[in-house]
Amino acid sequence: FDGDTHFPPAQDAARFDEETARAVIEALPDNAAPPGILYLPVSYTNLAKPAPREAFGQMLNSLGTWPRPNVAALLYDVPRDPFYSTIGDVTAFLSERFSAVDLLVTDPGFNVGALSHSRVRSLALSLPNAEDALRQSALRRFAGQRDALRARQILSMVMNVRSAADIAQCTAQKIPLVSGKGVSEPLSKPLGA
Fold first, then answer.
1. Contact partners, residue 16, CB within 8 Å, separation at least 6
2. How far apart are CA 124 and CA 142, in angstroms?
3. Which of 16, 78, 100, 150 is the most exposed place for a label (fewest CB within 10 A)?
4. Among candidate residues 121, 141, 134, 126, the one with its CA nearest the CA of residue 181
5. pLDDT, tens digit, for every residue of 54-106?
């Protein structure tokens, strides 16, 4: 997701997630592993309740076999302060089906303490579509949680990086993973494919 304008509306999230999952899995010839890791976007809000979570699991099961070690779940629309038990239930559900679970947040003040017992590999901040001063402020605030993330063995990542200034700030703040137009324009296929 390259900024919050790429997120589907909440009422369309379940349909978006299913269509995306089907398209991604069906695009892999003979269930061949992709040349890297595929990130499958999944709505937190949709999976926060047991019935939609079960329906999503059944949909994934209906896809047959697919290269699970090469497909990670990118959980989007995660609230600033998710319920401790809900985030644990959702990440446990996803970790049984995907190689890793990464969270994508839009609030740099996300409550990292809610992740104490969840199975999360990384926490990614999608920088706001705003002027540079607000983007830099959000980045610094997010980076202020680096030690709390490190203590939980969760990588920090920044998405929607648009400029050399964003990259320089990520480097200065020791954010190890970055993505966005400032890093690379969208490609028609993965590098090395």
1. 8, 41, 43
2. 9
3. 150
4. 126
5. 999 998 888 777 777 888 899 999 999 998 889 999 999 999 988 899 999 99
